[in-house]
Amino acid sequence: MTLQRTFTIIKPDAVKRGAIGDIIEQFESQGFRILAMKMLEISKSQAEQFYAVHAARPFYGSLTEFMSSGPIVALALEKENAIADLRKLMGATDPAKAEEGTIRKKWATNIEFNAIHGSDAEDTARFELSFFFAGYELAK
Ligand code: IDP
Ligand code: MG
User: How confident is the model at residue 81 (pLDDT cuts 50, 70, 90)?
Assistant: First the structure.
């Protein structure tokens, strides 16, 4: 299997709870190589662009409010099967349904304030990586 890239965000709730170090430790111990990383705040309209696929969902307004409510940490990750393996490490969207040992089981508060974002497919990973990182920012 060849190396694959994925994109992840440590969301504002997890940053506020002091979970950055723990989550990055889990990425590294699970074999993800960090290609790029930055802490930043995004505006409501940037969050709306990032989550445009969810524009029709009832939670779009509050999700984009939440994602622009404080600092986030965006990372580009690489490993074999990175997209599926990150989704597995994250756990279910709703932490009440997340498996033991997952990041959401440990850090999420509820289905909305759920600690972490991860790309769900190759095309969304490509869009999301390029939304936050220029090519020159990724490690070789
Ligand atoms: P995912 O983050 O597990 O891929 P998505 O369905 O893509 O889940 O939803 C994007 C984000 O929107 C979720 O991570 C969560 O923060 C929020 N969200 C999803 N479903 C709900 C809901 O039913 N109520 C409130 N927020 C939700
Ligand atoms: Mg999603």
Answer: very high
Q: Are 119 and 86 in contact (CB under 8 A)?
A: yes
Which range of residues forms the domain containing residue 97? 3-134
Residue 72 neighbours by CB distance under 10 Å: 23
> What residues sit around ligand 2, an ion, with C-beta below 5 angstroms?
120
Task: Tell me how far the alpha carbon of residue 93 lies from the centroid of ligand 1, in angstroms.
Answer: 6
Q: Which residues does the annotation mark as catalytic?
A: 117
- Tell me: pLDDT of 1 over 90: no
In a domain, 65, yes or no: yes
Ligand 1 atom nearest to 87, measured from its CA: 3
79's CB contacts (< 8 A; 6+ apart) are 3, 4, 30, 31, 32, 33, 85
Q: Using one digit for the tens of pLDDT, what is the confidence trace for 42-63?
A: 999 999 999 999 999 999 999 9
Please report whether residue 139 resides in a domain: no
Whether 110 is in the pocket of ligand 1, judged by its Cβ within 6 Å, is no
| Predicted TM-score of the model (pTM) | 0.98
How many domains does the chain divide into? Answer: 1
CATH of the domain at 87: 3.30.70.141
